[in-house]
Design brief:
This protein is mainly α. The chain is built from four helices and no strands.
């Protein structure tokens, strides 16, 4: 499931920021990808809708990298299972 979440997130970022998916790594910071806090919220909403999870607001503030988002969503999916 982690790979699916990662791929979905990378595709969403690529589409939103007009980047190549290959240019986005797990360790890419949201800042270096020019993702504002509003962009990050939009990305998280897309992931929430697709996977049926809800990222707590306090967790949104902790998101700094693509990996942070992927790991957070995977933890929520594991907890839900």
């Amino acid at each position: 499931m982690k790979e699916a979440v990662e791929q979905t997130l990378k595709e969403s970022i690529a589409r939103q920021k007009m980047l190549a998916v290959e240019d986005i790594s797990l360790d890419s910071s949201l800042e270096e990808l020019d993702i504002s806090s509003l962009d990050a919220i939009s990305l998280v909403f897309d992931i929430e809708d697709q996977y049926g999870v809800e990222v707590p607001n306090e967790e949104l503030k902790k998101l700094r990298t693509v990996r942070d988002i992927v790991e957070g969503v995977n933890q929520l999916l594991t907890a839900r299972a």
